Amino acid sequence: WLVFMAGWAFLFGVFMMIGSGSNADPKSVGMGTAIMGAQGMAMMSIAFALGLTVGSAVARTKILKIIAVIAALFCFTQLPAILAAINPEMAMMAMPLGLLAIGVWLGGFFKKPMITPLLAGLGFAAVMVFFGVAGYMLNVRKDAPIFTQSFFGGGDTGQVQVQVTMPPGSSLERTTQVVQRVEKVAIALPETEYVTTQVGQFGGGFGVGNSGSQYAGLTVSLIPKEAMLESMMFWVKHEKTRSKSSTTIVSELQSAIGKVPDAKIVVTAGGAFGGAPIDFRIKSTNPDEVPALAAKAMEIMAGIDGLVNVELSSKPGKPELLVRPNRIRMADNDLNVSQLGGATRTLFEGDTSATYREAGREYDIRVNLSDDVRQNPAALASVPITFRNSNPIFLGDVATIEEAVGPDRVERRDRQRQIAVQAQLLPGEVVGTKSQEIYQKLLEGGIPEENIGFGGEFEVQTREMVYMMSAFGLGIVLVFLVLASLFDNILYPFIIQLAQPQAFVGALLALMMTGTPMEIVGMIGFIMLIGLVGKNAILLVDYTNTLREQGRDRHAALLEAGPVRLRPIMMTTLAMILAMLPVAAAIGRGSEFRAPLGIVIIGGLSLSTLLTLFVIPASYTLFDDLSNEISGVMQRRRERLDAKVKKVAEGEPGV
Q1: 434 near 278, Cβ under 8 Å?
Q2: I need a labelling partner for 21 at 20 to 30 A (CA). Which of 4, 13, 414, 558 fits?
Q3: What pLDDT digit, counting tens, does each position of 86-138 carry?
């Protein structure tokens, strides 16, 4: 029991360490708040263990067991509401009290009083608190979360994005002048291969695109980055490469461009999802409240460390003309809003019903108002939009024209008005972890949860992680079914699969030690571990069963199976670890994306192999005892049933 519980305590301890060490600002949180999860787990384990000890001493009668069950149901259903009405912080006490009652009920099945469960519960609680404090101390020392998560691996994409934003109403000529200045600086970099420019548009992908004469975007494609393997093979002639990362080039390019009058220039490393890495959507069915909420969210995000260039996707200040229809005058002239809108659109966008033909080709003739009329409300009001009885009806007769400013774009999603609040990340920050921190800050800042939406990479991560976890659970079920069919037993697969949680401990520790975020490739590594780590337990269990079939007792079979199977276990484990080292070391071009896969498998196999040699034999013993106990109960029930059948057959009265 000690070995079995120690392995599981180590697993839960690592989870507690991750939970207490994932605060963005650990010094402001404090140790008590940081290890609250570990304290809660410790309290529940002590309560359950105390219940087992007390129940084994006093609750061995049927009436006391019934009272314990009723008390447990009351603690889980009614007590939380009662405690919350007294003090919301007391509601959390309902869970330990419920586990105490369950422990008393289970303890009543012991044949004699036992103090061992209480000692085990105290030890488990001490382990939880220890790991919680360790996680907090590591978090304080690092001054950053010890475990981060993202969705898509970073790495060097070989591209740098430059976004140019001019004041609203800027002409294409002025924007082009600024773009040409940025192009000269970008082309002058020795790491630049070529530059692609779009004037009048920027964005796309999973980000929010912007279009208008004041926007421009440049994509600076870099020459390939030198890989570790290429630097080691110095005797081989390679193509021209660079030693600087794309993030370093971003800083150099931003400094070289400097400040440009009336222009906002943002330089970022190109990402796989396009757009800004941080992308939160402020949405509402009431269009009037969206700008105020978006401005508040922008203010909150501007005060969060690690974020730069926080901005809104829709900005006010774009000059426009508002045509407000006069419905009474429109009714007098037999006009409706649709006709007025269509006529106004034709005045500005033009009409292409006329066609010019020459040499077998057709060219549309666009007829619209000249720029001087379109920008003059008084002149626009004198433009006729239709005729009634050969008399012209001017725009100013049925509508009021006003000069105003409005947003440069209107965004809608799911029939709601929205504005995206976007930001760039400083080097070292991870999208998934930072987005979760921002989400909590927005809620604490008073932004309602229903008004917050996700965009970009975090949206994809939130949606797809559900399917990854489903694949993970399905993998466990399929492995169990295969092992159960091969062993022709449902007990041994449970024993073998107990090695899988130990592998997850090693994988999580490997990610934390290397500072690698949990990404989709790492999740694939966890799914692979489900099948890989089971082979050690299969070797031990299968050989133990073989020895027992030859007449050895269980203890002797386990003692012999461990040393005999140690060599094939080490051979297969070392072979896989050494094969994964190049992947984990990321020695090839673009291999940073695959590195988490190698790190997860190496960490999981290393620790699981060590723990399997101890945990699996202990688990085998416990489950075998459980199987013998169940078999004995079933055998005794069959014997009693056979005895009754025999008495009935003999005609014994009263049966």
Answers
A1: yes
A2: 4
A3: 887 777 888 889 889 998 888 887 778 888 888 888 888 999 999 999 988 88
Give the pLDDT band of residue 206 (cuts 50, 70, 90).
very low
Beta carbons of 604 and 503 less than 8 angstroms apart: yes
**Please, which residues have CB within 8 angstroms of residue 245's CB and are 6 or more apart in sequence?**
156, 225
Q: Which residues lie closer than 8 Å to 182 by C-beta, 6 or more apart?
A: 162, 164, 218, 257, 260, 265
Burial readout 141-152 (b: 16 or more C-beta within 10 A, e: otherwise): eeebbbbbbbbb
Are 190 and 240 in contact, with CB atoms under 8 Å apart?
A: no
What are the angstrom distances between the C-alpha of 469 and each of 17, 196, 461? 22, 40, 12
pLDDT at 270 over 70: no
What b/e sequence results for 93-128 when a residue is b if at least 16 CB atoms lie within 10 Å of its CB, and e otherwise? bbbbbbbbbbbbbbbbebeeeeeebbebbebbbebb
Long-range contacts of the stretch 117-122 (C-beta < 8 A, 24+): 117/49, 117/52, 117/53, 117/56, 118/49, 118/50, 118/52, 118/53, 119/49, 120/1, 120/5, 120/49, 121/45, 121/46, 121/48, 121/49, 121/50, 121/52, 122/46, 122/49
Phi, psi of 192 (to 5 degrees): -80, 135
pTM: 0.75
φ/ψ of residue 533, rounded to 5: -75, -15
Q: In sequence order, which ranges of 143-269 are alpha helices (DSSP H)?
A: 172-187, 228-232, 246-257
For residue 314 the two structure tokens come to: 């829709």
pLDDT digits (tens, 9 = 90+) for 339-390: 888 888 888 888 888 889 988 899 988 888 887 887 788 888 888 888 888 8
Question: Quick one: which of 112, 447, 436 has its CA closest to 297?
Answer: 447
